[in-house]
Each structure stands twice: as C-alpha cells, then as structure tokens.
Amino acid sequence: MTYGDVMNARVRSEERRAEIVGAALQVIAERGYRGASLAAVAERVGLTQQGLLHYFPTKDALLVAVLQERDRWDAVPDPRWRMELLASLVEYNAMRPAIIQTFSALLGESVTEDHPARGYFTERYAEVRASMAAVLRAEYGDRLPNGLTPERTAPLLVAVMDGLQYQWLLDPGSVDMPEAFRDFLRLLGEPAD
C-alpha cells in the first residue's frame, strides 16, 4: 500500500465519520438521545449497526462526537466579544434548527443523573456563565445600568438564550428569536427603577 493509498483511506474514513455524526445529529434531534439507536443512525448512512461500530464502538462515543461537532460550530463566546456579536450568534442559530433541536433535546435529557451528557453540560454551563460575565463586564464594567453585577446577570443571559431556543423550536412562526434577544439586550441597558 502506498502513502497515497493510506492518505485516501484516512480521508474516506474521516468523511464517513462526519457523515455518521451528521446522521446522529438528525436522529437525536428527532428522537432524543435515549430514543436514538445506533441502528437508526447506521440506517441513515447506509451501514449495518456492526459497520457503524467500526467508527464509534459505543453509543456514548457517538454522543461525544456529536457534542464535539456541535462545539466546533458554536464555540463558547470569547470574553473579548461585544454584545452585538451575541445577537449575531442568535441570528446564526436561527438558521440551524437541526443543531438547535439536537442541543435542546440533549440538554433536556441531560438533567437526569445517569445521562452520559450530564457532565458535559454541567461543565459547559460553568464555562458559558464565566464567559458571559466577562462579555458583560467588558460592555458595562462592574455594574450594569440595572445595578446587577456581570456574574449575577450571566445566568439570566444564558437562560434567555436557551429559553428562546425552546420557544422558537416549538413555535417558530410566533417567536422571532433574534428580535426577542435584541429586546432583552435593550433591557440589560435600562437602569433599575
């Protein structure tokens, strides 16, 4: 086998892994993690379940790959971000309903103690809250116009972003996620009564 053959095989393998992860995203979005089966994912990509196990030996290994792929598309905001970039992120998310649906399904299921993604989401939310506090501090200083600190406001900001995603997924015709988020940002800048 030549070096070129080895490289071609590696590229094909990576392409197949990406195809499997994409199919897993769709299946999880439709059925949730617990309802998703390796057989359903394998069927979507034209493999047997045994063939899929060659790429991902367990359902948990596939879940990790799905979460890593999602993070590639939707990195935690950098503390150097400005608030208007968060609004752009919400607009971008509105163009990716399957990713948002998968994330929301996994997040909802992860609150059970034995869910394999529980640790991932616990850690991710700690990182996101810290990052959002840094973004808020860069924008407003140590106190927002409403009198709250960035650390007190960060969980609320994250809750609004995630809550809007759920509402938008349930009724996209009634909830304009980007517009509602911009309205929330205006509220952050309002002084407390």
UniProtKB/TrEMBL annotation:
Gene3D superfamilies: Tetracycline Repressor, domain 2. InterPro entries: BetI_C, Homeodomain-like_sf, HTH-type_TetR-like_transc_reg, HTH_TetR, Tet_transcr_reg_TetR-rel_C_sf. The keyword Transcription applies. Residues 14-74 form the HTH tetR-type domain. One of its GO terms (molecular function) is transcription cis-regulatory region binding. Residues 37-56 bind DNA. Keywords: DNA-binding, Repressor, Transcription, Transcription regulation. This is TetR family transcriptional regulator.
